[in-house]
Structures are given as structure tokens and as C-alpha cells.
Amino acid sequence: MSIVAITSLTRAAPPGDSHGAVHLLDLEGGRAARVLDWRRPDIDFSGARGGRGFSGLACLGDTAWASSGDELFAFSPAFELLEVYRNPYLEAARGVYAHDGELYVVSSALDAVLRFDPAEGRFTWGLQLVDDDAGLRGVPFDPGATTGPSRSSALKLDSVFADARGLFVAGALSLGLLYFDGRGIHRPVTLPEGATDARPWADGVLFNDHDAGAARFLTPSHNRVFAAPVDPAADGNPHPGGLAVIGPNRFVSGTTPLTVCVHNVETMQTEQRYILSEDPNETITAITPWPFKN
């Protein structure tokens, strides 16, 4: 896969300005295009982030799906807005992942994952993750019901991954990759506080380590660390965000200001680096392989 899509948000952008974007980057040709400027006015502009920009992106069928605030957006490959889906239990939406014809979306304000069926155009299932005195557990709920889970962000969930084994979710305070096998929640791998974008890959876990300012691939026998470039304009500290696997040994990571790096876990080399913007307020939120021919 030589093309990736990158979503971003512009922190503290005022109403009327672009507060998010989607970029396409050709990793082989080195060409980049800003294909969508997001200026939607009817969002929450409070704080540095609020409802600005996009937080997650996944491709399923002939549609690109992006999350933001309390909404899931359906776009054509040319980024024409097709539909907007809402749910009372989708709040502070983050990561999106496509699996087996369905989408899984993180609701960070509820420490929950919602499943969306594009064929039916509705959210069909939800799972809130709870870690309290009773232990770590998952509580299923019906997103279509009038009563459901209350707000909780103790885990600060931001990422979701699904395959035949089940669901894998994680967040800045989950302290590990959390695995739901259909019966219960397990923490097979511990991760540092502040880890984001975590997902299983091969025999390990790929994640962004914010305290270390690096993307890491952690396996039972290796800890492969790829330091993010330091941007002096962004307080001198790297701010990693977004990860995508693009081959058996290669993955893409992002950092501020809108910088994308291609890494090889076998050679331990950062093979390519692309700077798409110099704006220190524009933050990468998601990276995903782009299957369409625009």
C-alpha cells in the first residue's frame, strides 16, 4: 500500500477557520494533497480541542468513515459528504476500525466501543469498559436503548482494533492493551501511561509512547523504539499521533507538526520522512492505508 490518508485537527482554531483536514500522501512518489478542509461551524469550540477536526478514519467498501465529536461521517473517495450518523452514546469519538463489514468506534467520554453496521445505517452494539474495585470488565449495552452507560473516562480510550480473535482497545490510562474475547476483558500486555494508538501486530503491540516521544513495537523478545522528530516550534517536545501498518515489516507514524515517518522494524531504520505542514497547532490524529484510486 503506497498511499495513506491522514486526519488532523488544528488546536485552538476559532470559528470560521479550518479546524481539521484530511491529507493523502503517496509514500512512493512523495506527493501529498490536502483533500479536505474541515470548517464546519456547528461544533464545540471550547478548549484547545473541543469538537475540532477528525479523530479517526477507516475505509470500508466504497466509503471513507471519519469520527469527530459525537458523530460518524461517511465520505465518498472524493470526500463528498454522504451521510452523518449520531448516537447518544457516541461522545468524544476517537479511533475507528473496519472489520468484517462493520465499523468499531471508540466513545472516549464513556470508555466504550460502539459497533456500526453500514448496511443498516445504525449502531447495533456497544461495550463499556470498566476498571474499578470489582476489577476489569466489559459491560455490553444497546446503543438504540433509551438507557445506557453513564459517562466515564477513567481509561481514556482512544484506539480499537478487531479481528477474528475479538476486540482490542487501549487508551492513555488503560495501562495495557485490553482484549475482549466475547466473554471478558483481559490485559495480555502492559503499556506505559500515556500510550495511544495501540494495536496488535505480528507477535507484539504497536503504539505511540507520548512520554518517550516515540513509536514503539513491543514483542516478548524486543522493544523497538523509533524516536519522533523534535519540532522546536512545538515546545521542543515530540507529540506522536497516528499509526498504520503498511507491510510485513513496515509501519507509518505521525507527529507534530504534521510529519509522517515510515519505519522498518527489521532494519530499525526510519526510511522516509515527510513534512506536510509547519503549523505547530495542526496535530495528526489518525493514519490509515488508502485503498481508493483518486
From TrEMBL:
Protein name: SMP-30/gluconolactonase/LRE family protein
Organism name: Marinihelvus fidelis
